[in-house]
Specification:
With about 400 residues, this protein is mainly alpha-helical. The protein has one domain: Glycosyltransferase. Helices cover about 55% and strands about 10% of the residues. The chain contains twelve helices and 13 strands. α4 packs parallel to α6, α5 runs antiparallel to α6 and α8 packs antiparallel against α9. The radius of gyration is 20 Å and the shape is globular.
Length: about 400
């Protein structure tokens, strides 16, 4: 089964997904990447979103570093990295959310995520090119992001009374950055230490009754189930965090914690799966109350890409057949729902029954990232497992 899937994912990645983005997204005049692309690649908004530009720089640089040193990949990454370095930050070093085509500032979001993916893009680009200045920029940005997460007022967000909240998304992005930095500099003990902190912090989000990760808990670890935010479960985030934690545990080995993360992954699939229509719900309330998010019943592309890789990783770690059963179920739903055989790439947004609601292939949240990253990681994990590594 795994060999067959690897072949399917290779064809999808290199014959459909990457060609779509390479053909339609690269701005060779001003640099950077367009992401607001309709089904056939037609541009419907030429603004550029910093976090999606950083993600595409990372993706193309990662493929250049790990798969093949293709000049078209690194040249596109160079256009993206240069655009971000010229235009991505304000005079105080904060990172914009959106830019006009020529790099003129368009919007702030007062969240750290644009900076996160700019940081990751510059770090991977520096590995590909030997650009030490980009490496320094990435490392400095990492520590700034840590400060911004600890004190959001530094990003211009107002502080209000009430309990301080730990957000699972913040833990996830710090884990992602620390993993990349730990791999880039194995001799630096700071990053494995941070990964240990991230494991601790993420597991404090484990709701004890269902043993799943919920989005928001008190900074002191207290569950806030009297609010919709404190009852919010995102299956996609949960399974994505699980694979980040399994990677982090390579640096902080702990068999008991690995087993706990695998239980969380299984429970997240069980609770998150829509038994009536298939696929993973976007959001759920752990008490069965109405989520505030109107998009909660929809089926989106990215939770399914994250599930594919998480399930393959779980199988390679354990050899347990239950993971293959979940993988087959998830793969079948994903591939009958999202890929577009006519124009390439994947649709992103479906209703609960799996019917396409938006023709677009990209917007201000969907770009060249979740699909190609998952396909590449799935292929890599299967090949490593098959070779015994």
């Amino acid at each position: 089964m795994l060999t067959t899937l690897a072949g399917r994912y290779q064809r999808d990645l290199y014959e459909s997904v990457l060609p779509f983005w390479m053909k339609h997204s690269v701005d060779r005049e001003h640099g950077g990447f367009f992401t607001c692309l309709d089904r056939d690649g037609t541009l419907y908004d030429d603004r550029k979103y910093v976090w999606l530009n950083g993600r595409q720089v990372w993706m193309l640089s990662k493929l250049y570093n790990t798969v093949e040193k293709r000049e078209d990949w690194i040249e596109a990454a160079r256009l993206g990295a240069g655009f971000l370095r010229r235009h991505g930050r304000d005079p105080q070093g904060r990172v914009y959310f959106a830019l006009q085509r020529d790099g003129t500032p368009a919007a702030y979001q007062r969240k750290p995520y644009g900076a996160v993916f700019m940081m990751l893009g510059l770090l991977e680009y520096s590995k590909a090119t030997g650009d030490t200045a980009a490496r320094t920029e990435a490392e400095e940005l990492f520590w700034r992001i840590r400060e911004w997460i600890a004190d959001p007022r530094l990003m211009g967000r107002l502080a209000f009374p009430g309990p301080k909240v730990s957000q699972l998304a913040d833990i996830m992005v710090v884990t992602s950055m620390a993993l990349e930095l730990a791999a880039a500099d194995p001799g630096d003990a700071r990053y494995p230490e941070i990964l240990g902190e991230c494991i601790d912090a993420a597991l404090r989000h484990c709701e004890p009754n269902r043993e799943i990760l919920i989005e928001n808990v008190g900074a002191d670890g207290k569950f806030l189930t009297d609010t919709p935010e404190g009852r919010l479960f995102s299956p996609g985030h949960a399974v994505e965090v699980c694979w980040f934690l399994l990677h982090a545990l390579r640096y902080r080995p702990d068999a008991a914690r690995q087993e706990k993360v695998l239980r969380i992954l299984e429970n997240s699939m069980l609770f998150g799966w829509d038994e009536d229509h298939g696929g993973l719900h976007y959001f759920l309330d752990i008490q069965g109350r109405p989520p505030l998010q109107l998009e909660a019943p929809m089926k989106l592309w990215w939770p399914h890409t994250e599930a594919l890789y998480s399930l393959i990783l779980a199988y390679t770690l354990t050899g347990e057949s239950k993971w293959l059963q979940w993988l087959e179920r998830t793969h079948d739903y994903t591939y009958r729902t999202f890929p577009d055989p006519e124009y390439g790439e994947w649709f992103g947004y479906c209703d609960r029954e799996g019917k396409i609601t938006h023709s677009l292939k990209g917007n201000n949240y969907k770009g060249c990232f979740h699909v190609p990253r998952a396909l590449w990681m799935c292929i890599d994990a299967i090949e490593r497992y098959g070779s015994g590594n």
